[in-house]
Amino acid sequence: MSNNHIYLRYLDMKDAGSLLDLKLRNRDFFQPFEPIRDDSHFTLEGQKSEIANGIQGVANDESYTFGIFLKETDELVGRIALTGIARGPFQNAYLGYFMDEKHNGKGYATGAVSLCVEYAFNEIGLHRVQAGVMPKNVPSIRVLEKAGFRHEGLSKKYLKINGSWEDHELFAITAE
């Protein structure tokens, strides 16, 4: 999946070093928006385990995890995932993503969200994709709005982020 500047592909074991570099380089930048992670997460083995879980998720139709790569250089600049896939009458997934701080504001996250949603609807047959964003994460809210997501409400104390239970604005997009 690609557009003019980026492409998405499943992460595989050869990406573990690049994923680790990305997370270490952005650790302080990401922390206000993520759960507190054990130091073992920030190791090559930790990233290999995360990639292995992603591969298993695809095999079980439970999740789909992609790296976001620059077309020009093949540099890994982010990750995007469809998780918690529910089939049956729901046909829903949760969307989560992160982008290297030095590549923010260039439209790559919006492009990745659009490509991932297109994949969700056209390739794996989902009807709905939803995302939760802390109200203070205005850039991420803008990404979702630009990608066509609608605001659906506020969930109080939704996720434990950076050690605190945080409210999240809920956004969704459906195949229609």
> What is the molecular shape?
globular
Beta-strand percent range:
25-35%
Q: What's the arrangement of strands in the largest beta sheet?
A: 1-2-3-4-5-7-6
The CATH superfamily is identified as Gcn5-related N-acetyltransferase (GNAT)
Give the N-to-C terminal Cα separation.
21 Å
Instruction: Calculate Rg over CA atoms.
Output: 15 Å
Count of helix runs? 5
Please mark out the parts with pLDDT under 50 across 5 or more consecutive residues, or reply none.
Answer: none
The appropriate CATH architecture is 3-Layer(aba) Sandwich
Q: Which structural category fits the helices and strands?
A: alpha+beta
Number of domains: 1
CATH fold assignment: Aminopeptidase
Task: Give the strand tally.
Answer: 7
Biggest sheet layout: 7 strands, mixed
Overall pLDDT: 97
SSE arrangement, N to C? EHHHEEEHEHEE
Helix content: 25-40%
Which class in CATH terms? Answer: Alpha Beta
GO molecular function, one term: protein-N-terminal-alanine acetyltransferase activity
Protein name: N-acetyltransferase
GO cellular component, one term: cytoplasm
Family: Belongs to the acetyltransferase family. RimJ subfamily.
Describe the structure.
This protein has 176 residues and is α+β, with helices and mostly antiparallel strands. It has a single domain (6-174), classed as Gcn5-related N-acetyltransferase (GNAT) (Aminopeptidase, 3-Layer(aba) Sandwich). It is built from five helices and seven strands. A seven-stranded mixed β-sheet has the order 1-2-3-4-5-7-6, with helices on both faces. Helix 1 crosses helix 3 (44-59). The longest helix is centred in the first third of the chain and has 16 residues, at 44-59. It starts with 5 loop residues before the first strand and ends with a strand. The mean pLDDT is 97. This is N-acetyltransferase. Belongs to the acetyltransferase family. RimJ subfamily. InterPro entries: Acyl_CoA_acyltransferase, GNAT_dom, N-acetyltransferase. One of its GO terms (cellular component) is cytoplasm. It comes from Paenibacillus anaericanus.
